[in-house]
Amino acid sequence: MKTEISCGPAFALAEISVPAGGSVRVEAGAMAMMRGDIAITTSTRGGFMKGLRRSLGGSSFFVNDFSSEGGGVVAVAGALPGDIVETTLDGGTALLVQSGCWIASDATVDVDSKWGGSKGFFSGAGLVLLRCSGNGEILLSSYGAIRPVTLAPGETMTLDTGHVVAFDETVQYRIRKAGGWKSMILGGEGIVTEFTGPGRVWMQTRSATDLVDWLRARMPSNNGSTSSNG
Fold this sequence. Notes:
It comes from Prescottella soli. By secondary structure, this protein is mainly beta. Helix content is 13%, strand content 46%.
């Protein structure tokens, strides 16, 4: 997958060159532009149950495969302002991706929900993971800029769960409270994810959860409002 990323890190756009006879898999709704000879096929990729697991994980039930007989270009963009990075899977270590951060990959990359990540889902942390494995290139999108960090064996790093983009499957993780109940209620720090190396971790500089909370606090409320007739 030959990709040119521009307009980052705030409003990144990834233009993917699809060679003659080639294809690329894209998250439903992520396509921003097409050029040349491009055809679209929509499917669950793996059957009903795999599509259902993706949808329960926060991604679309469907994915789009863009293919070309003569060659073309597909451009993809994230739903929120932010960056896009490309990384390679070599058939060895899989990549665990925060749902919503996978945006596109080679058709040879398998994207499925990892229900080991359900411990974050059921704890209310909002950490739901997609397991990406196989051979090929993968594009990760973010809200804000993306910063990669490589952890040495035994080295730890803690992220607010909303800032997690992806991490190697070799990295161990656990979800916990940032501190005591006082810190959660008064300090504004809630659920965090602690990572232990070895492996790579990608973080985003902004949190979509924080954005939602910020907007909710500033939206007018109709609680207690009454209307009278005559």
